[in-house]
Amino acid sequence: MSRSLPPADLAGFCSCLDQLPAPDDRALQGAQQRDASLTKPRGALGRLEEIVLWLAAWQGRALPQAEAVKIVIFAGNHGVTARGVSAFPAAVTAQMVANFRQGGAAINQLARAFGARLEVVELDLERPTADFCAAPAMGEAELVAALRAGWNAVEPGLDLFIAGEMGIGNTTSAAALAAALFGDELGVSGWCGRGTGVDDAGLARKEAAVALALQTHAGALRDPFEILRRLGGREVAAMTGAILRARLERVPVLLDGFIACAAAAVLERARPGALDHCFAAHQSAEGAHARLLAAIGKEPLMSLGLRLGEASGAGTALGLVQAALACHRGMASFAEAGVSGKGL
Ligand SMILES: O=C(O)c1ccc[n+]([C@@H]2O[C@H](COP(=O)([O-])O)[C@@H](O)[C@H]2O)c1
Ligand SMILES: Cc1cc2nc[nH]c2cc1C
């Protein structure tokens, strides 16, 4: 299904979940057949083969490509930063947006290295969300505006989409989201990590903020989109909207780190299988990312100790995507190369 206009309201976004397209089985089979013909023992390219099959199924072609690759960094500010939950001041969000625009951030280098188009979408940076320890982070209209901003960032026909984020304080928001979506039986500390590098006192403030938020919103944390409204942030909701639109357009998505996965998890909780078009690029060093990946049923491609956000893990994984596609598209078959097939 291709639809250009974003839903007007929250009910419209929710009803998209009833219309999720399936992968293209014929394209998948075509890619499997080609893979089986190539001059290598079957399975010998390991997870590179998995990447190719995923792209084939969602792009709808046996010879997938990564020409039109788009990375969008969504930026938002968080009221919860007033509680001392980050190692950096909230002003860094806008300063990094300027850095993205000037080409000086890590993601600028990765996008250039791997031939991806990079865009930055600022979401009301001068107006942080409400401190979710005391009140819902966003009103419904704000949530819908953020979901729509994400939706509008994805166009049909992309070969691959990456949603990235920049938002001082957003690992606290992502921890609260994950705890609310998947339960906090291990305690909130199981979902809290050091983010930009908070010290022990900062980590304790973060855990206290998440615990207080869950208490404040107790009884109102059943619906995943309501959880997003209460505990999320604008850039988080924009990633949710973008990942949903990508699914409707059958555009495959590479998931980045802890915050991007929390945004995606809203969809998975709302509709199991909603993330079938997504591949987890990496496991970040944020302590709870491994748990979150397991909760959404994703096996990360790499674990390099990255904890930067801004789509840097997914941007790095583009190199692996290119490696996978180069082999699938360029290798000779056994017949073409005159190589003997398996004997026994
Ligand atoms: O992607 C991740 O897993 C990740 C882990 C730690 C930090 N970050 C980035 O750091 C910022 C949030 O960290 P913090 O400590 O301010 O909550 C935000 O801009 C994220 O892009 C991102
Ligand atoms: C400098 C800096 C760059 C970032 N990029 C994504 N999150 C970030 C957080 C900080 C603090």
TrEMBL record:
Q: Which Pfam families match?
A: DBI_PRT
Instruction: Write down the Gene3D superfamilies for this protein, in alphabetical order.
Output: 1.10.1610.10, 3.40.50.10210
Span of the signal peptide: none
Q: In which pathway does it act?
A: Nucleoside biosynthesis; alpha-ribazole biosynthesis; alpha-ribazole from 5,6-dimethylbenzimidazole: step 1/2
The GO terms this record gives for MF are: nicotinate-nucleotide-dimethylbenzimidazole phosphoribosyltransferase activity
User: EC class of this enzyme?
Assistant: transferase
Q: Which residues are catalytic? A: E310 (proton acceptor)
Alphabetized, the UniProt keywords read: Cobalamin biosynthesis, Glycosyltransferase, Transferase
Task: Give the similarity note.
Answer: Belongs to the CobT family.
Which E.C. number(s) belong to this protein?
Answer: 2.4.2.21
What organism does the record attribute this protein to? Pseudogemmobacter faecipullorum
**Coding gene?**
cobT
Q: Which reaction does it catalyse?
A: 5,6-dimethylbenzimidazole + nicotinate beta-D-ribonucleotide = alpha-ribazole 5'-phosphate + nicotinate + H(+)
What's the name of the protein? Nicotinate-nucleotide--dimethylbenzimidazole phosphoribosyltransferase
* Function, as annotated: Catalyzes the synthesis of alpha-ribazole-5'-phosphate from nicotinate mononucleotide (NAMN) and 5,6-dimethylbenzimidazole (DMB).
